[in-house]
Write a structure and sequence with these properties.
CATH topology of the largest domain: Rossmann fold
Strand order of the largest sheet: 7-6-5-8-9
Order of helices and strands: HEHEHEHEHEHEEHEHHEHHHH
CATH architecture of the largest domain: 3-Layer(aba) Sandwich
Largest sheet: 5 strands, parallel
Strand content: 5-15%
Helix content: 25-40%
Number of domains: 2
Bound molecules: N-carbamoyl-L-aspartate
Amino acid sequence: MIKHLLSINQLDRHDVIRILDTAESFREVGTRVIKKVPALRGRTVVNLFYEDSTRTRISFEIAAKRLSADVINFSTSGSSVAKGESLKDTALTLQAMGADAIVIRHSSSGAPATLSRWVTASVLNAGDGTHEHPTQALLDLFTIREHFPSFEGLRVAVVGDVRHSRVARSLTFAMTKMGGQVTLVGPATLIPPEAPAWGAEVSHDLDGVLPKADVCYMLRVQRERQRQQFFPSVREYSRLFGLSRARVEALPENALIMHPGPMNRGVEIASDVADLPRAVITDQVTNGIAVRMSLLYLMLGGARSADAANAEEPATAEEVARA
Ligand code: NCD
């Protein structure tokens, strides 16, 4: 398995399936009264978040704890970063303290890749600028796989602020890698010019795309990253690109509605649509834990280290989950 997870493009089809299958073994752990397995006992995972996050940070924290790792949550306010410490010095400090994995979210694209050159710990990209968010794409694939027998030929519409979305990039790379067809939908101002090179189609007509979509993936309008006016008004955006109740009727009967969160209810997605049974948004959150457990386990060599520590420890993810 890879040492660092910086981009979906590091993974081939076989790796993706292995990560999803391993997540499958760990999913059941989350339904138990005692939600813990010993796979990463004695290992240290640091959550290094330079940008706000609710679900991704908590999800990584729960995932590491369910594998019995020690977790340190490092946020930039209240730390020496607020005193001007550089990413490099922070990284070297964490390294000196014996971190085995560093989960990093940063507003600069490429920060996780830079970090990976300074430390011996495994680096996991939890979202870097407008570049990538690979663990989100993997949990999205896991959620899609629960409803469809194969990714081959599956049609995914990714709708909204594609330009500022690392989620859209990673999901497009992942779905096209697995044989799916992605259509990026949004106003011309919010679709980056290089989007066709990602292997996706581009459309500005949501109503034309919906009847053919197996998955309708809504993106948050990322106002904090928009440095200019990309559409005339929120009302107009919502009318043209929001997923309303009427638009849901145009989707095929078994189509899924997804959103990475946090949602702007009433902007990109109508509030009642977000609560429909076919909107699997909370399943995405639940599945995120199993997928991140799988990644930490595979990347930190959970089976191998457990083997070395104690020959009686379970060696495969299935055995770990059963133990
Ligand atoms: C996304 C992110 O931070 O990139 N959220 C998430 O990780 N669940 C998407 C977003 O902020 O809109």
